[in-house]
Amino acid sequence: MNEFDVVVVGAGAAGLIAAGRVAELGGRVLLLEKMERAGRKLLITGKGRCNITNDAPQSEFYNHIYPNARFLKHAFSTFFSGDIIRLLEKYGTETVVERGGRVFPVSNSSADVVKALLKWVQEHQVEIRYGHQVEKLIVIGGEVKGLLVSVHGKSMNITCGKVILCTGGCSYPGTGSTGDGYRMAKKAGHTIETPRPALVPVETEGDLAQRLQGLSLKNVKAIVWVSGKKLKEEFGEMLFTHFGLTGPIILSLSRFIVDELLKGHKVEVSVDLKPALDEVKLDNRLLRDLDENGKRKIENLFRLWLPSSLIPVFLKELEIDGNKEAHQLGARERKKILLMMKDLRFRVTGYRPFKEAIITAGGVVTGEIDGKTMESKVVKNLYFAGEVIDLDADTGGYNLQLAFSTAWLAAQSCMGIH
């Protein structure tokens, strides 16, 4: 006799949803978590504010998810952004839509999101056991029969009808995301696409970024160049650090940067500080400002064009004497200023470790999971949800929605609802 209908491994975003939905449908469910509390990673998402989802239409969501967004079609049609918003509001967490369609709790506290989900699972009498480390899946004859669990150094078997793996990725390992699910799935016969950091800051050559440390730029365009060819671009906000570049647009581009670096390619990021102006319009503006301020020192004139901390960097890199008067600036120097404004370039040498990555790219390949049920095609009665699957997304609430939707579908499938 099975002790439980379903065992859910991992009490993060996906695990809480999966366990809650199984219980809501009348299933005997056990939620296992190796840490001492639930939702550790949820608590730090969105800088502690928790970007729950995005109010973009489904068709738009697919443009932000990699490498196989269409795999989520059924999951999204089963449970989407409006559904998670309604569930959280029912359990006391009101939400608000902010710039870029990002949905946050009105309280600006991720703890309220965790609290609402815990209230829901507890109301449906989900049994949660903390401090339970799942060592491996017990698979007999191609079917999952239970789990081997370690509790305070002692091993025990738990028998069950079905297992949903919601173990997350490798990012922010301090929250419990240490790649356990990949190891379990691999032992059970699954193929794992190599896990690597995604939504991660990047490291750059030289000291240019370091000299600009702390400067945040808004409304700029960052372009990724690979071996001299343009690969991808993003418009928005970025930040310079002591090691290189970060901020929303850099994080979104990092997935592609990391992959190209792993292939051994030369990767550069070009920052267009004046994306609203093409070269002709920008040159006209520079000419006009130079004409109107002929007696001003060039260093002071730069204040019309750039944030103050960029000025000494420009003057040094372009070897321009800031004490010269504007009318003394030649056409060649003006052209150099213009080109640097349109193409402030950084050679990317690396990226930060998993502990600084928001999410993980890679995981259990989608070709070995049934997109209509989230059940493994390799092991019967084994299901996957969330970041353990080889799916990742841009910033903006897309990653959490991916976790919620796949977990809800996995739970329904376990209970025979298709």
Poorly predicted regions: none
Largest sheet: 7 strands, mixed
Averaged pLDDT: 96
CATH architecture type of the largest domain: 3-Layer(bba) Sandwich
Distance between the termini: 25 Å
The CATH superfamily of the largest domain appears as FAD/NAD(P)-binding domain
CATH topology of the largest domain: FAD/NAD(P)-binding domain
Which shape, going by the Cα principal axes?
elongated
DSSP summary: helix tally? 14
**What Rg is obtained from the alpha carbons, in whole angstroms?**
25 Å
> What is the CATH class of the largest domain?
Alpha Beta
Report the helical percentage. 25-40%
Strand content range: 25-35%
Tally the beta strands: 20
Strand-pairing-aware structural class = alpha+beta
Number of domains: 2
Task: Give a short synopsis of this structure.
With 418 residues, the chain is an alpha+beta fold.
Give the arrangement of secondary structure elements.
Blueprint: E1 4-9, H1 13-24, E2 29-33, H2 40-44, E3 53-54, H3 58-61, E4 65-66, H4 73-78, H5 81-90, E5 95-97, E6 102-105, H6 110-123, E7 127-130, E8 132-140, E9 143-151, E10 154-165, H7 180-187, E11 192-198, E12 202-204, H8 208-211, E13 216-226, E14 229-240, E15 244-246, H9 248-262, E16 267-272, H10 279-292, H11 298-301, H12 311-318, H13 331-342, E17 344-351, E18 359-364, E19 382-384, E20 392-393, H14 398-414
Parallel strand pairs: 1-2, 1-10, 2-7, 10-19
Antiparallel strand pairs: 3-6, 4-20, 5-6, 8-9, 9-10, 11-18, 12-15, 12-17, 13-14, 13-16, 14-15, 16-17
Helix pairs in contact: 1-6, 1-14, 10-13
